[in-house]
Amino acid sequence: MTDVSIIIVNWNTRDILRDCLLSVYAQTQALTYELIVVDNASSDGSAEMVKHEFPLVTLITNSENCGFGVANNQGMRIARGRFVLLLNSDTLVLDGAIQKTLHYADKNPEVGVIGCQAVWPDGRRQNTCLRFANLSLLALSSLLFFREAKPFQIPLLHPDRYLNLDLEQEHNVDIVAGCFFFVRQDVIDKVGMFDEDFFMYGEEAEWCFRILQAGWLIRYFPGAKIVHLYGASSFQVEDVTRINKRKGVLLFMHKTRGLMYAWLANLIMTLGVLLRIPFWVIEDAYQLIAHRKPLRVWDKRMKVIGFHFAGFFAPVWK
After folding, report:
1. Phi, psi at residue 23, to the nearest 5°?
2. Which of these, 2, 43, 162, 268, could form a disulfide with 81 (CB 3.0-4.6 Å)?
3. pTM of the full predicted structure?
4. Homologous superfamily of domain range 4-132+159-235
5. Where are the beta strands (DSSP E) in the chain?
6. Which spans in 32-184 are helix H?
């Protein structure tokens, strides 16, 4: 039986995807694996590149962008491995990370999902250990400070982050980031795959919630390392990403805590956006005073405000 099925979802990241695939081949030995690429209707020639340069890769091409969860589910349905690795296209595998994770997983059968250490290209660590959002943490981050201001970029103001986590040590966590998501096939068989109501953002949290409910652990394992460029696809549609992130939070709360909980979360997030309006005005005024081009993002901001106000009348995050 194949040890690991590596699934990579791609949307318009051809050159980055090529580097990712090359790193997998260069850094993965001493195990059997298959590579599955799911292309979400890229327009940059990604699918053609995979077909011609990596003929051994199983390629699934979609006629439209189905989103992160749906595309990964397509790969998982044909996966033959004892384990499945969901790997972002904007990553580079380092120092045998996949076989190290496989070895660790075989030694720790109580662990259902493993995430690894991720670093920026300059070597700085990324915090890929996340926790489930709740109303109190959401209120703290949304209402007390302006998170966008650099002086306030502290973990306490980010409801999905752990405080003071030693990233050199193993930890049981609520969620590991989807850039490197190593999951047992047994978990998939028992718990199921991603909830396809999520387009992008929030699907890992909801899946991890179900996996923990089923009795497995979610483990951060720093013994394996990747480079993660972060957001290579989502940065191409930043305005859509703003809404999808908020949808993901609210949909997660709706599915795990109920409609009223999600409605209260939407209220908190709405107040948080309204509190930020003076900050945005000051920021734009500074740009004008400094003789720079003002930020032309009010249309995007109004879309966010409109999304939250609509949520008071119907669960628009569904």
Report:
1. -70, -35
2. 2
3. 0.87
4. Spore Coat Polysaccharide Biosynthesis Protein SpsA; Chain A (3.90.550.10)
5. 4-10, 33-40, 58-62, 83-87, 91-94, 111-119, 125-126, 129-130, 171-172, 175-176, 180-184, 217-228
6. 46-53, 68-78, 97-107, 135-143
